[in-house]
Amino acid sequence: MAVNAERFLKDLHDLRGFGASGVGKGVVRPAYSEADVAARRWLASRMEDAGLQVRFDPVGNLFGLAEGPSLLMGSHSDSQPEGGWLDGALGVIAALEVARSAGRPVSVVSFQDEEGRFGVTTGSAIWSGHLPLAEADTLTDHAGVSFGAARAAMAGLAGDFVDPARFTGFVEMHIEQGPTLDTEGEQIGVVSDIVGIRDMKISFRGQQNHAGTTPMHLRRDAFQALSLFNARINDRFRNLVTSRTVWTIGHVALHPNASSIVPGRAQFSMQWRDGDAGRLARMEEIIRDTAHEVARETGMELEFGPLLGLEPVAMDARLKAALETGARDVAPGKWRTMPSGALHDATNVARLMPVAMLFVPSIGGISHDFAEDTDEADLVAGLRVLERAVEALA
Amino acid sequence: MAVNAERFLKDLHDLRGFGASGVGKGVVRPAYSEADVAARRWLASRMEDAGLQVRFDPVGNLFGLAEGPSLLMGSHSDSQPEGGWLDGALGVIAALEVARSAGRPVSVVSFQDEEGRFGVTTGSAIWSGHLPLAEADTLTDHAGVSFGAARAAMAGLAGDFVDPARFTGFVEMHIEQGPTLDTEGEQIGVVSDIVGIRDMKISFRGQQNHAGTTPMHLRRDAFQALSLFNARINDRFRNLVTSRTVWTIGHVALHPNASSIVPGRAQFSMQWRDGDAGRLARMEEIIRDTAHEVARETGMELEFGPLLGLEPVAMDARLKAALETGARDVAPGKWRTMPSGALHDATNVARLMPVAMLFVPSIGGISHDFAEDTDEADLVAGLRVLERAVEALA
């Protein structure tokens, strides 16, 4: 029995009805919101219809379980506060369609809070053992609501955690969330690895002063230190990075942040990502050395926040080869292997079992925005690649 | 009759009682606050005791008027939200002591809202005709209170505006608010000119994007544009500026200002000050040209806010010579002529009459802070310079 593209697209549009934003195909379906819980109840009924056994775990991860050992497929159905209709929802609905039609046991999952209302890929982080439940319960969202209180809203549905030993592997389809496939006119990306991430707050503390009466040579201007640091790391990274490496200063807070006052303090975020753990470590060295050097030269006190991070994750060779077989058949000459620059639930699930991922294009590279979209022909191509991959694994 | 240093210091300490912060000698006495109005009532009574005719004008500027043509002296008694005990208060109390003891007619003024709760040197700007009253009434503070509503709190005290034609000139004593005198171990600065100021908001608009999935070469990162702009103007200013020129990027707002998102927008303040209007204009050219150049190179949309500014003001030669005479007598070998990098009420009053200014040291260059202070010996030296200058002008 083959996948049914029409039924797949109808399910996808039906899911969009939960939290539809009224702007294009946008959705507002953050984890544990009314729309999110309603969407999960609907998904559970579709899973039941597909002959799967439904299980909500204690944190709201929703499983549709096939009997016996099975391949797990899926992603997440929660959205950003302003999100698109596809994002993780695509991977969940595609998994459901494959489970309905595959000739072998396929289970389906929609992880909870992948978008990080409370943490980072919270639901799969807990399931995989990366994040202890007791610790997760103390996390709070921007409004001060705790994870513990939020998941209580789904307590009536909750059963036990699912034993990961029943799954032979995990395959996640997702939109690319970047411009590569769309720019190149390709339909399918088979993920080679999920890049590792490092994130650190850095602050320079100089001397707050009057911007009229403090001569330039007596200033200890924290913004100038930040600007110099930025220029130097850009220069020093050049000999180390690949075209896949990225680094970002995305958050800057000056103090007191007034036009007539020499900034006494600059706190900023330094984030870098790469598929190679060694390169991530060498970048960290450059960052720390350069910050110390700039602090010395400009008379700053320097403070590093804790180094947060996730290790790079390589995709499983056998699962990846199956996806490549599917891509060759479904989109000949219009696919590539590529790294994932974004985090996904697969990063956590890789602690438990072999994982692989598949991308379809994001039009204009846009994601986490009401304007996120993908050509329906590409969505169906992705579905068919999953179908072929499952056949190839049989 | 000579000035009375003890009476002068006692008045200064008494004035500090209005809005004393409880931290060191700090005061909290912003314009139109209860403490500010109470301080002005107390000042009015001290003026009356000194034989001066008290007049509050419609915006709360307080005058103690000598009969007939007179020299006007003073400054302002409002403070920053967290201010020091001296700042403008010093000039008001010193003027009062000189008016009490001088052998010729000296009037005293305490301007209102020099610290700019509503505008910039608001009270003297209105009195001098630089800022129309109707326009001032629409200005609001950070809490949304209008100037019109705030000055209504003093309406019961208000008489007419004072005719500036009754004054032969204006002399203002103030703390330096910078480190020069303190660093050099000097007691007195005779101001040569008040530097001009230019202030402009600039914004770069690039493309907000996912910090994991957007390759470096496809980014249009507004923070990177800001950092490049900053490095280039620093470099290009070098051949143009003097040791007195200053420039500051004191306010930066990134959007959305999140560690995992490439900044799509950077709005920042660009402020520069110099005693020469031509140099200010050449700096503006460099700023505009460089911003355009960086925007072109980095794919930004560029927007300039309105150019705000005040022209440089030279001190009157005759009044300045009188202060120099005083400085030579009172602090031989321990005084200098110097520009004022800060704005003062004298900037506005210069539109109406000849003006001159005198500085005493700020310990550590600190001002607009509870920790602001000056050695009492230096305060008295400043008082005596004013006394000698008034004698020299007779």
UniProtKB/TrEMBL annotation, chains A, B:
Pfam families xref list: Peptidase_M20 (PF01546)
Keyword list, A-Z: Hydrolase, Manganese, Metal-binding
Cofactors that this protein relies on: Mn(2+)
Highest taxon in the source lineage: Bacteria
CDD domains in the record: M20_bAS (cd03884)
Gene3D superfamilies on file: 3.30.70.360, Zn peptidases
Membrane-spanning residues: none
GO molecular function, one term: hydrolase activity
Presence of the UniProt keyword Manganese in the record: yes
Subunit structure: Homodimer.
PANTHER family reported in the protein's UniProt record: ALLANTOATE DEIMINASE-RELATED
Family assignment from sequence similarity: Belongs to the peptidase M20 family.
Protein name: Zn-dependent hydrolase
